[in-house]
Amino acid sequence: MFRTLTTRTSTSLSRSTFPRAQRILAPVVPLLNLTRTMATEKQKTLTEAIKEDHEEMYEYYDLYQKAHGNADAQERWARQLIWEVARHAVGEEIVVYPLMEQYMGADGVKQADHDREEHQGVKEMLSQLESLTPASTNYSELLKKVMDHLKHHNNDEEVKDLPVLEPLLGEERSRAAAKEFTRTKMFVPTRAHPSLPNRPPAETLAGFLVTPIDKLKDAFAKFPTEEMKNAA
Fold it and tell me: Is the pTM of this model over 0.85?
């Protein structure tokens, strides 16, 4: 996963494109890199795909901390981290939590609702970050709070949720779910490739965080599948 960090950050939005409140966005993931990432996901289980996302969050945060003293670098890593967190949360809400409800019975419904509540808390903190200056003391303190919250949430998923869900899915359904989960990486702020939708469901992080999940599901359904991309 760390092997993709350099290519993922090779392109960034112009600092003058949006006002600061809208600039907490990740660099656009190059389409070639995205395609390669999806190709490797074909062999992953849902658990492996989610754990890899979790590790990416921690790596981006570590790079943010290591860039202390370099405001520009910290802002760029913050954009990357925050967009990854937001996209990951929505990916779980679209793909993973419905599976928990479907296969884990009443306990799955209860746990999915709990996880959604925790995601809402993270989304609210991410929205608060938009009003702060990246690399400032207040920003770093709130970002640490986000990561502390996420580590607890992620650990619960890895220790409690996924070990129960994975055997209920079976290997074939798990790998299919991992592919669907990875497709949510198409939720990026800017799309220049003609094979992708002309308009994203939200063009800024602020818009993305408040977009109803049903609307995001509808937009996600219109993204090309792996089969379509391979046949193109």
Answer: no
